[in-house]
Amino acid sequence: MEWVPNTHQPQRILIVHLKVPDKTNEITAVPTLLRALEPAGCIVTTDAMGGQKKIAREIIEAAADYVLALKGNHETAREEA
Length: 81
Fold this sequence. Notes:
two-stranded parallel sheet, 3 helices, about 35% helix, globular
């Protein structure tokens, strides 16, 4: 896991890059990453691949807030948002 703190911003932004194992994708890696970061009190963002109910639930359980991108095929979630 590579953590790249952006020290040029007063907002204390942390950009994390995590190589996922072969034959898997970031959907399975995001929960592991969240537990390692302990994001309580932070805002977590992710791209459309990370816009999953399980990931949103993990973020909430970590006492954090989130901004998730949704693809067009997530009609119900888009309507609820």
